[in-house]
Amino acid sequence: MADSTSSSSPIVADLHLKFVHQLDGNTKWNAQHLKVNGVYWGLSALVLLNRLDYKPDDVVNFLLSCYNSDGGFGGNTDMDSHLLHTMSAVQLLCMFDAVERIDVERTAHWIASMQLPDGSFQGDEWGEVDTRFSYIALNCLRLLGRCDCIDIEAAVQYVLECQNWDGGFGVSPGAESHAGQIFCCVGALCLANALDRIDKDRVAAWLAMRQLPSGGLNGRPEKKADVCYSWWVVSSLSVLGRTSWIDREALFRYILSCQDTEDGGFSDKPGNQPDVYHTFFGLCGLSLLGYDGYKLNAINPVYALSYDVLDRLKIAPEYGSQIGRRAPSL
Questions:
Q1: Which of 73, 87, 201, 246 has the greatest number of CB atoms lying within 10 Å of its CB?
Q2: How far apart are CA 317 and CA 62, in angstroms?
Q3: How many CA atoms lie within 13 A of 243 on its CB side?
Q4: Do residues 119 and 151 make contact, with C-beta atoms less than 8 angstroms apart?
Q5: Residue 103: which residues within 8 A CB-CB, separation 6 or more?
């Protein structure tokens, strides 16, 4: 691969556009089960760059080919429904103003059917439970306007049980704290209008300690920095109103050091192969912290959608639609 950019280089938007377009022809077997998610990451990256140029009908028709009779979405055509893929599909349908193309009631009730008696959510019919799925269910149902389908208080109680003594959250009660799970749990609580039930400073302190001398962020202690945590950590700090607790300029330098200035895209670490996942989340981190080297679209740290989409959906501000736009950073 080409050398990554220096920390002072600007965003190479044209190359990122080309990089995303080249993914259309990706037929690697190990990526096919995540195609819906990949489309969301790629097109959302272009939205951030203000360079979205895909035809809505092409995207929506692909999504509908992944829509199953139970109301959920698979990761690709003819694949079983899973909450992970359903969220990306719902986000894309909102992005392209095409939610009416699906049976909202059927989808909402399928999502609700994933809730277990203890308030947790399983990802699919096979029963894996994870706090990711609590966030996903609440995110999807807020976007669809159908949170009445689930027991919100039970969902909140389960998430609170997953908080640890160090302030972080794990995948399940008693599991190790992890930045990705903190994003999911903080996001779920925000969507449930229950952020006041945690100590924000304690959570933010754990997140702030994820910044390393390189400027990058890791997901848990003793791990290396990874560009994707520019989203998981910064979005959580944004929801908590504590983004000033990390060194913004140092993180900018780290993210940009992972940018491929010859072929486009961002990688997890400087010098590694770029991919669409880290491209999207690297741009998210730059957007959330107000990078001024390129006019990036603003992304909401709760829904992972641009504010114009949320404005169009008229989502109530108490459920996080204004978070990150005007929230104070202490």
A1: 73
A2: 31
A3: 25
A4: yes
A5: 71
Task: Quote the CA–CA distance of 81 and 69 in Å, as a whole number.
Answer: 9
Q: Maximum CA pair distance of the chain?
A: 52
Q: Is 328 helix (H, G, I), strand (E, B) or coil?
A: coil
pLDDT digits (tens, 9 = 90+) for 65-83: 999 999 999 999 999 999 9
Does residue 329 form part of some domain?
no
Distance CA 314, CA 39 (A): 25
- 177: CATH: 1.50.10.20
- Is residue 233, in this structure, part of any structural domain at all? yes
| Residues 261-295 pLDDT 10s | 999 999 999 999 999 999 999 999 999 999 999 99
Instruction: Domain of residue 35: give its range.
Output: 13-319
The Cα–Cα gap between 95 and 108 comes to 18
Task: Measure CA of the first residue to CA of the last residue in the chain; give whole Å.
Answer: 40
Q: Based on the structure, what is the number of domains in the chain? A: 1
Assigned domain for 294 exists? yes
Residue 170 domain-assigned?
yes
Residues of the chain below pLDDT 70: 1-9, 26-30, 326-330
Whether residue 243 contacts residue 207, with contact meaning beta carbons closer than 8 Å, is answered with no
